[in-house]
DNA sequence: ACTAAAATATACCGATCGGTATTTATTAGG
DNA sequence: CCTAATAAATACCGATCGGTATATTTTAGT
């Protein structure tokens, strides 16, 4: 790995939480140099512009959360347990024990959907991939008789994502983990009612 | 009503959708003068600074949506129907027939929670008021035997808000009204299962 | 160790940022 | 209609914005 490649990764690691908290417009080049200790010349030696840093930061934040989800899902045997891994994982994003700025999908969706087409494209793909992944899980659950055959996999996927993301918004804003627990209690009941 | 009061309202009306779409950091004074046709001097003759415009814009956006919700709720007789008015109202915010930038509560919560304490305080209050309002409706539903007595009003309130806001995020990002319909189908089932 | 290439720092660019002091135009009351 | 008060426009402020050309340092292959 060349020096520039290392620096690129370093810049992304250091700025990803900032973009997640402040958003694209709210994160300045000064924020980036301050977080990395590097100069503007060095940043622009490794990235064409601020957009490229923001896009790379989103990829990094997304991979960070989705790899944790994948790892936790692999530990679970039943489909229903797999569908419920979000509860524990996202709690850490809310109560500060992981400490970033919440879910990058939610943050970037709201931040970019009316302002930044390229970033919007990335988060759009992330949501659709997420939906398809859950839908496939549900299909597997139906095939394995764990979930009733009359259930709509896409509807279930969208409902789960909505509850999770809406729950994150509420819990992060209010700083109330109890709210997260209550909403996730409803999610648990919902998943258990599927079959 | 004095001229200045009219101008203040005019400025808020014209800039509220911009703040809702672009967020606080993403909305510049140039955006404000362009949207109003006024000059910077005139803006600052009516507002102390950009913060004051943003705060007034949030109040305006919030009142706009909540008054529509109140009006629609008053048309409904049963508690369950009252709890389901969000379905039709927010659809208009998503499919463009009302054309703003989505739900101001969601947008401002994500935009301000890590960056703008004053704005965060306003949206925090809005969410808590919203939660309490739904919880009171549920309590009335329990009193009127429409909803089972073992249901937790706060949990129901939080769950409904999470599904609505999460659903808005997904549907607005993907521009798919079908997704909204599917998620709201789950909400309908949820509300009907309450008693 | 030497050197060419790669990477970082320095210094600077015009544009835009939020904000203000002052001047001009408009409003409303007598 | 005149005038004092109010409101809006003009012109300007320093700071910061994203970005770049150039100089300096560091890296890595021989």
TrEMBL record, chains A, B:
Q: Which residues form the HTH tetR-type domain?
A: 5-65
Q: Which residues bind DNA?
A: 28-47
A UniProt-annotated Pfam family: TetR_N
KW Transcription regulation (keyword) present: yes
Q: Does the keyword Metal-binding apply?
A: no
PROSITE patterns in the cross-refs? HTH_TETR_2
Q: Which GO terms describe its molecular function?
A: DNA binding
Protein name according to UniProt: DNA-binding transcriptional regulator, AcrR family
